[in-house]
Amino acid sequence: MVKFLVLVKPGSSQEKIIKTGESELTVYLRAKAHDGEANNALIKLLAKHFDVPKTSIQITHGLKSRHKTIEF
Fold first, then answer.
1. What is the side-by-side order of every strand in the sheet holding 58-61?
2. Residue 71 forms beta bridges with which residues?
3. Domains and CATH numbers, the chain
4. Residue 70 and residue 72: Cα distance in Å, rounded?
5. Mean pLDDT calculated for residue range 25-43
6. How does pLDDT run across 13-26, given as a tens digit for each residue?
7. 70 burial level (CB within 10 Å; 0-12, 13-18, 19+)
8. What is the mean pLDDT of residues 29-57?
9. Could you say which DSSP state residue 37 is in?
10. pTM given for the model
């Protein structure tokens, strides 16, 4: 199982993933932090980036925060 600490920046002009540490990422999303849109966009972007199914990625901490823990 892989674990990452993720800082999410919703409402950005572009979508990108920046590795900021050994197991830390900063993720810029176009989606707004409203009704889980940013969480869904985060899972979709990470699944594409790491080439894993969306269903295997879980937000284990920080569901309503910009600081999240992701496992897959």
1. 16-21, 24-28, 3-9, 67-71, 58-61
2. 3, 58
3. 3-71 (3.30.1200.10)
4. 7
5. 97
6. 999 999 999 999 99
7. buried
8. 97
9. H
10. 0.95
